[in-house]
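Quick one, T. Sequence first:
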Amino acid sequence: MREIKIRAISELTNDWIYSNGYYFDGINYWFIVPSDYPAIGFAEHHMVKGGTIGQFTGLVDNLGKEIYEDDIVNFHYQVPPEGEVRSTCLEVVFHNGAFVQEHCNKLDPEYYQETKDIWYEWDEVVIVGTKYENPGLLINKKGE
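Structure tokens:
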């Protein structure tokens, strides 16, 4: 079973903060970051940007880096019949109860654009950024 982890961008520092839980107080989203003390009163609380909250997929890339929802990954695939190897970028999203890949590379609009389950197809994948840090890698659903 995979470990439950989440991350989001801090409202205060614009850095990524990692946690295993968050809460919404009606106005703001807060991450609870455990400390070395056993009592919850000693945990740190960080206000985060709600739209940047993403969950850990349970997968790591070829460099050992954890893959989270909203990451953009570089993926290698083969084109039949000759088996030409190509590369494209994919966005990791949570859709219909599963983490899936969505086509997002402006440079390779020919790539199969149907949303696919990420678990069965990846052989070689490396995180190249997030949709927040690298929005220029994303295209809209029409391929523009």
